[in-house]
Amino acid sequence: MQSLLDPAVLFFALGAFAGLVRSNLEMPAAISKFLSIYLLTALGLKGGFALAASGFTASVASSLGLAVLLAVVVPLAGYALLRRVLSGFNAAAVAATYGSVSAVTFVTATQYLESQSISYGGYMAAAMALMESPAILLAVMLANALRQRQAVPAAHAAPVLAVSASGAVALAGPGGLGAADPTPAGKGGPALSVGKILRESFTDGTQLLLLGAMLIGLITRDAGKAAMQPFSGDLFKGMLCLFLLDMGLSAARNLPAVRKQSPWLLAYAVWGPLVHASVAVGLAWLAQVPAGDAVLLMVLAASASYIAVPAVVRYAIPEADPSLYVSLSLGVTFPLNILLGIPLYTQVVLQLWGG
């Protein structure tokens, strides 16, 4: 109950209430963007300062290695399960959403750990950055494989005779002159290479800012930490509260789309993150990573992207329904993690680690 009295959580609840009662409370888009930039910059700096203090130890390597493993296992397992209730393209999109991570959920978790005096590695910001792209890559590859399988029957269809305006007779259809693209117009996704996806992932503004700020923190070390303390330390909590107020508004306004979803998908949006977190804590316990890092691994595994992945998937997998994966991640999983998940994961780790 004490966790629900945290100012950041209460501001999220205030935003959700305002959205539910249809208040005209609104965060200007420019302010929302500024808050996102601030949080990512401050988080990256904190991670760089922490990594400079600890160095690249075996514990750091274990935490980052587990993060990459989870970023591969979660979307593949999710796709295998979701394929039973969704089309292949929708299953790939939802699996990518839940296989990737939510930066805001992660930032909220770090603030919660600090309020509970639980130490964690600032390098976990690098884990978050590493976990964002694998799910996108896997989803695009799965979608391309689906398109190829769909194209095979069309390629073997019997050709038909077509008469041109000049009276010439030619084969039309698959394999003939004027063969049509087997993918319907407006439905096929672009053929994206792995190299292009990787480049776009690591040059994406969110990734670039986070990793760049971390590098700056790593280079400037203690002197940089002292100089940036008012920016990355003192202001952080207040800025997070304002951003969560805006996220509460967004989550509430997304509820009508949530109500339209299948009960099976709603169950996945609730239980899927809990299963992912359970896998993460099991791996963390086996690897004996520090307790704070274990909590953050659970949070990252349980979170779902509602910004980065939808932006890429809408372009790369246009066959998928955006209202499906956005409504589940933002309308169900995000508030579940903010209000209940983070304190639950923390208590589980403290019990297992004997904290």
TrEMBL record:
Alphabetical keyword list: Membrane, Transmembrane, Transmembrane helix
Transmembrane segments: 6-25, 37-58, 64-82, 89-109, 121-143, 206-223, 264-288, 294-317, 324-345
Keyword 4Fe-4S in record: no
InterPro entries assigned: Sbt_1
Pfam families: Sbt_1
Top-level taxon of origin: Bacteria
PANTHER family, sorted: SLR1512 PROTEIN
Protein name: Sodium-dependent bicarbonate transport family permease
Organism name: Acidovorax ebreus (strain TPSY)
